[in-house]
Structure formats: structure tokens, C-alpha cells
Amino acid sequence: MYWEDNVEPVGKLTTPLCIFCSSKHTEKELINWQMDHLEQIKPNHLPRILRNFYRYVERNINQLYLLHEERKDDQDKLPPKPLS
């Protein structure tokens, strides 16, 4: 994957440019395409693909964790339910 501004993001959601069609795609679209065509990708590109995939998964796991923590905090702020 190559980025429009040539700065490789670590923790940002990005819109990378496709090296084949030069148009913008989501990271998920490009990673899905790369994983579907992994057998045809040059071996020297494999570390970059795996690194991008790892960062994508890690970022999404962190987002899910933060969402879970926010919901947990919201539940803690609610008053207790009365016993009937």
C-alpha cells in the first residue's frame, strides 16, 4: 500500500491509493484484495502486507476495546435498578 502523502500512518484511518488503479480505496478493501491474491504477490512485498494487516487488525481491536470500556463506564453511571 502506498499513501497519498507518502507518510505511512501507524494509528490513523487512511485512504490509501491502489498501486494498480491509482484510485482511493479503504484499507479494508486493499487488504482484502491483497489477501485474496497473496500467492501472486512478490515475496519482497510480503513483509509490508503483513505489517499493514497487523496494524489494521490491532487498530480495530483497540477501537472495540475502547467502545467496550465506554459502555462499561456508562453502565456504571446508571442508578441501580429497584428491587421489586
Ends: how far apart? 59 Å
Helix/strand/pairing category: mainly alpha
Shape: elongated
Helix content estimate: 40-55%
Q: What number of structural domains do the residues give? A: 1
Biggest sheet, in brief? none
Q: What are the low-pLDDT stretches, counting only 5+ consecutive residues below 50?
A: none
The rounded Rg comes to: 19 Å
Any descriptors?
mainly alpha, 50% helix, 84 residues
Topology:
Blueprint: H1 27-36, H2 46-77
Task: Give your account of this protein's structure.
The model has no long low-confidence stretch (mean pLDDT 77). The termini are far apart. This protein is an all-alpha fold and 84 residues long. It has one domain. The longest helix is centred in the last third of the chain and has 32 residues, at 46-77. The radius of gyration is 19 Å and the shape is elongated. The protein has 2 helices and no strands.
Summarize the structure.
The chain is mainly α. The protein has helices at 27-36, 46-77.
